[in-house]
Design goal:
Protein name: Ring finger protein 4
Radius of gyration: 33 Å
Structural class: alpha+beta
Distance between the termini: 92 Å
GO molecular function, one term: zinc ion binding
Strand order of the largest sheet: 4-3-5
Keywords: Metal-binding, Zinc, Zinc-finger
Organism: Takifugu rubripes (Japanese pufferfish)
Length: 169
């Protein structure tokens, strides 16, 4: 191949083709940008298991509080209005820490992995199981944990599938 042929090839049609490819890339990029603004987004709820789903409105404050309210004394520690003012006594404010109604009841059984209560575990067909180390889980969460890590999810003690048993309450 001669030097003249090499020059013709490098200065010939490949440059024209290269610039036309760049222009076509720009055009296709613009079309893609315009097409993305036309896309309609549809929300699909994949959490529903049956044909009827319970809809929970989290935007309104219609939660029911237990009516056993005891009057507790509370002082305002800091105020935006006046830094030199004396502490104000508010009797209508109830401290959640002082009221044992809002604390989890001792003796209730729940799975610390999925946070389901005893009733939710039993109603869904799962068993309440206890490990050799004494921790309580639902059967599905413990089975999955032992499959992946072979340890207790609470204390990380080494466990096998033979080292837990169902609890019948």
């Amino acid at each position: 191949m001669s030097e003249a042929q090499r020059k013709r090839r490098t200065t010939g049609s490949p440059l024209v083709a290269r610039s036309s490819t760049k222009t076509s890339r720009r055009v296709s990029a613009r079309r893609a940008a315009n097409d993305t603004s036309i896309i309609v987004r549809e929300v699909v709820d994949l959490t529903c298991e049956g044909s009827e789903c319970a809809v929970v409105d989290l935007t309104s404050n219609d939660s029911v509080l237990r009516s056993t309210v005891t009057t507790a004394e509370s002082y305002v520690v800091s105020s935006d209005e006046d830094d030199n003012a004396a502490p104000v006594l508010k009797t209508s404010v109830v401290s959640l820490h002082d009221n044992s109604v809002f604390r989890p009841t001792p003796g209730t059984i729940s799975c610390p992995v999925c946070l389901d209560s005893y009733c939710e575990i039993v109603d869904s067909g799962r068993l309440v199981v206890s490990t050799k180390c004494g921790h309580v889980f639902c059967s599905q969460c413990l089975r999955d944990a032992l499959t992946s890590s072979h340890t207790c999810p609470t204390c990380r003690k080494r466990l096998t599938h033979r080292q837990y048993h169902p609890l019948y309450i």
